[in-house]
Amino acid sequence: MANNKFVLPTLIVIRLLGTTAFYALVPFLAVWLTRVTLLSSAEVGVVVGVCIFSTRAGGLALVWPVRKLGARGSIIAFYVTGALALAFLVVGRQAGPALLCGVVGVVGVAFSGATLAVKTLAASTQDGRTRLRSFSWLNIATNVGAAFGPLLGSALAQEEPLALPTLVGAILVAASALALAVRFDSSHSMSGTDAGHAGPSEGTAPFVRFVLLASATWFGYSQIFNVLPVAALGTQMAPLVPVVFAVNGVLIILLQMPITSFVSRRTGDDPALRNRTLAIGNALMALGLGSFWWGAEGAWIWVAAAVIFTVGETLWSPLYDEMAVHLRAGLSVPAALGWSSFLWGIAESVGAAVGTSIVLNQSTTLSPFAIAALTSAAASLLFFGEAARRRAIRDDRGPQPSMAA
Q1: 161 and 213 housed in the same domain
Q2: Is the predicted pLDDT of residue 251 greater than 90, yes or no?
Q3: Is 193 in contact with 36 (CB distance < 8 Å)?
């Protein structure tokens, strides 16, 4: 029997396996469907869209099962279900689009539900002082998986297409087995109110306010990972897109924990300092996005922009998850993570849709990167304003729980 000291390392490995499986399959799902099914190009687009949507919205729909099954049981159940759906995808690859939509929808929900369960377990077995480090480690695992997954998926989708879903399913089974092997005693409940919430008089208002404000960040974030490849297509900057992604992934792996440790030491539980950290992170993100627009044909400017953008991301990314848990008030941990993930997924999807539409509309001179930079700059100013407001409350009334834990 493993005790709680083994829970986080186990979750890191499970997250690494799950992310590797996701990025091996989803980016290449269209290629796989085109090669092994009888679907038309339009039908392939619909099936892929269903899969992506289910990964975004599935977590919210699975809040109740996560609470009933428990986070550990949910990881096992969702990944086993995903593996079975992938096996059916291989066997029933000649099925019609409706059935295939249902199958890939189950796969997407399995990924989403397992991610929610992993984050819930990380939050429920840690206190407020260690959650930020836990979410930072999960962010590193995500980026390692995002680096290895596409290499695996690209090779299999082209050379051995039937092996792709088979191997992804095997990875999910391995993650389930690992979760099954670990037992733990959660010292922190998934339900109730965090010790540092904003106060009973405010209810869930600070949580809602924070999640909506953070949505502006995710709107901007989508411009790099969804819109930049489209914007660079057919230009001399196209070869730099993989470089930008590589810089982002490598720097997060190298810098996330040192930056998280620095932020934890400097801010502690001070709400004003944590809001200020988010303000700085969004300001750096705005500067990075603006540099992609300003240096539209400058290779070194794009690399520098990727560095600036990534440093900003290391400041806000794990802190957003920690704050969503901390500010949940009467919400359970899975509900808080489910709602925040759902709304941020919408913001990211809207950002991708808006940015792609602008890029493809050659009659406009608008730049999605300039718009996203302004959005992120506005979020930065609002976080600075919240930091000042919390500082004033603390000075007037003594230390107070905050909107940003």
Answers
A1: no
A2: yes
A3: no
Q: Is the dihedral of CA 180, 182, 185, 191 positive or negative?
A: negative
- The residue type of 106 is V
Indicate whether this model's pTM tops 0.70: yes
Whole-angstrom distance, CA of residue 54 vs CA of residue 290? 31
CA distance 277 to 280: 5
Residue 405 lies inside a defined structural domain of this protein = no
**Residues 30 and 159 placed together within one structural domain of the fold:** yes
User: 233 and 164 in one domain?
Assistant: no
Q: Give the domain range for residue 154.
A: 4-181
Mean pLDDT of the 229-256 span: 84
271 and 217 both lie in a single domain: yes
Least confident piece of the model among 15-24, 130-139, 229-238: 229-238
Three-state secondary structure call for residue 210: helix
Same domain, 17 and 164: yes
Residue type, 318: P
User: Does residue 2 have a pLDDT over 70?
Assistant: no
Residues in the chain: 405
Residue 257 CA to residue 307 CA, distance in Å, equals 16
Domain count, the chain: 2
Q: Are 153 and 210 found together in one domain?
A: no
First to last CA, the chain: 34
CA atoms of 246 and 143, how far apart (whole Å): 10
CATH code assigned at 157: 1.20.1250.20
Assign 3-state DSSP to the chain and report helix, strand, coil percentages, each to 5.
80, 0, 20
Mean pLDDT of the chain: 83
Write the Ramachandran bin of 203: left for phi over 0, alpha for psi from -120 to 50, otherwise beta: left
* pLDDT interval class at 202 (50, 70, 90): low
Predicted local distance difference test score (pLDDT) of residue 39: 82
Would you state the pLDDT for residue 266? 84
Instruction: Give per-residue pLDDT as tens, 336-388.
Output: 888 888 888 888 888 887 887 887 776 556 688 888 899 999 999 999 998 88
Do 175 and 212 share a domain, yes or no? Answer: no
Position 325, amino acid: V
323 inside domain:
yes
Domain contains 187: no
Q: Do 212 and 245 belong together in one domain?
A: yes
